[in-house]
Amino acid sequence: MHDTKLTRLTTALASRILSLTESNRELELGLARHEVVNRSLEIEGKKADLLLQESRHLRKHLQEMARQILTVKEEGRKKMSLRLQDEIVQTLEGIHLRLLVLSKEVTASDENFKKEIAITQKLVRQSAKVINGFARECGIEYEN
After folding, report:
1. Per-residue confidence at 123, pLDDT binned at 50, 70, 90?
2. Residue 138 in 3-state DSSP?
3. Helices (H), the chain
4. Is residue 103 part of a domain?
5. Residue 102, C-beta contacts closer than 8 angstroms, at least 6 positions apart
6. Are 101 and 55 in contact (CB under 8 A)?
7. How many domains does the chain fold into?
8. Taking every pair of C-alpha atoms in the chain, what is the biggest distance, in angstroms?
9. What pLDDT digit, counting tens, does each position of 2-53 carry?
10. Are the beta carbons of 114 and 102 closer than 8 angstroms?
11. Comparing 98 with 15, which gets the higher pLDDT?
12. 144 in any annotated domain
């Protein structure tokens, strides 16, 4: 009976040893898989950091490009405004000059006509002042 009990205990012990050996193998495989996953996560983390750095660099580059575009557009608007202002002022100056010539040619008997010319000259000067004032408000200095 003692042999049977010893055999059963030996069999049970052998079975437990096999079971523990199998559990150890599974645990080692699990640890190996865990290590692989950790390495993979570490690599992906480094990739994510690089992508974040690249994204920040691109954002700065885009901001700089946007600033340059806005600067170029603003300079273009200023040039166009100056050109338009110059054209209008030249036209008003031409009208003013023509009115001066007309006022010299009008005889003394045409007093009403002289008054109309004077009123028109005043309007031309006022228009030039308004245009220059508007240009100054826009931050554009114009010298005529």
Report:
1. confident
2. coil
3. 2-105, 111-137
4. yes
5. 117
6. no
7. 1
8. 158
9. 788 889 889 999 999 999 999 999 999 999 999 999 999 999 999 999 999 9
10. no
11. 15
12. no
